[in-house]
Amino acid sequence: MKQRIDLQFFAQEKTEKATPKKRQDTRKKGQVPKSTDVNTALILLAVFLFLFLYGKVLGNHLFSTMEHVYKEYILQDVTEHAIPAMFKELTMESVLVMLPILLIALIVGMGASMLQVGFMFTPEAIKFKLEKINPLKGLKRIFSLRALVEFLKSMLKITLVGLLASSIIWFSLDSLMLLSLKSVQDGFFEVARLTGIIGALTACLLLFLSIPDYIYQKYDHEKQIRMSKQDVKDEQKKMEGDPQIKSKRKQKQMDMAMQRMMQEVPEADVVITNPTHFAIALRYDEENMDAPVITAKGADFIAYRIKTAAKQNEVVLVENKPLARALYYQTDIGDKVPEELFKATAEVLAYVYRLKNKLV
């Protein structure tokens, strides 16, 4: 009894790698190895590189917008028609500034996801499921090993990013102390430059840290989708069909084939026998056939059924052991008689025709 329980336990243990079907099913559910750190790092890097290249253009646009606000709007009367017009104009100016940044983030984010998992459309992943709001499962996720790893990873990132930003500010402290002596525009560009350096280096640091994170996510995903030996067997049964059902289906097909074959026996010209082990039914139409055709064949019990059907339908039975054995092993149902057996078969058919002529 104990040995049986141990065998059942080992059969349920997740020791096998996921099969291609299991991988495909989990992918359809949106369960793929993916690191959000890769997306975050690439988006940050792309955005800050864009700001390095076009930040001056965007800054000038912002300054011209602010200048327009303080020169034009301050002189306008505050009315119910003026306020919507001001709001609309400021909204359009804000869109012109933010839209390129948002587009860069969107494109790079999609590219980073496709780089990790390829193109994937999984509507099943966004379906509402009650188990997703189960508080017990939520607590289990919060206090799981995975949550602990994520917490430690976040603390490591915060610490390293904080050290990096503090170091850059420390080394740039002299230029920051002189900001009060600069114009607003120069001060803005100095702060923007420093922010860009911090952002770009932080993105590079996060990208470096995302490599082990992606490796861990892949390892964890493989661990999550492992299968037990029983799971593999069940999947194979499901794909190939239950052995009992498959056996019954095969038996039914054989029965139907046997029924069709037995229907051909009454149309045969002769049945060549062994006499007990083999029986081969031949039909020959001189006008439409080049050679006699095997319409039925069988051994032992099937041979007995062929001979019984032949007797019931007055089909001639001819005993010829070598020919019966050769036809059984060298041909299939529907085949023509092989050329090397033409002579022996012709002699049998000639005998049958003579016998029929005598009866007539």
Protein topology:
Layout: H1 2-12, E1 14-16, H2 20-28, H3 36-72, H4 82-117, H5 135-142, H6 145-171, H7 173-177, H8 184-224, E2 227-228, H9 229-240, H10 243-264, E3 270-273, E4 278-283, E5 293-299, H11 301-312, E6 316-319, H12 321-330, H13 342-359
Parallel strand pairs: 3-6
Antiparallel strand pairs: 1-2, 3-4, 4-5
GO cellular component, one term: plasma membrane
Keywords: Bacterial flagellum biogenesis, Bacterial flagellum protein export, Cell membrane, Cell projection, Cilium, Flagellum, Membrane, Protein transport, Transmembrane, Transmembrane helix, Transport
Protein name: Flagellar biosynthetic protein FlhB
Salient structural properties:
protein transport, T3SS_substrate_exporter, T3SS_substrate_exporter_C, 360 residues, 13 helices, alpha+beta, 7% strand, bacterial flagellum protein export, two-stranded antiparallel sheet, bacterial flagellum biogenesis, name from scop
Percent helix range: 55-70%
Q: State which percent range the strand residues make up.
A: 5-15%
Main structural class:
alpha+beta
Shape: elongated
For the record, the count of structural domains works out to 2
In DSSP terms (H or I, runs of 4 or more residues), the helix count works out at 13
Oligomer: single chain
Low-confidence stretches: 1-11
How many β-strand runs? 6
Q: Could you tell me how far the N terminus lies from the C terminus, measured between alpha carbons in angstroms?
A: 77 Å
Strand order of the largest sheet: 5-4-3-6
Mean pLDDT: 77
Radius of gyration: 42 Å
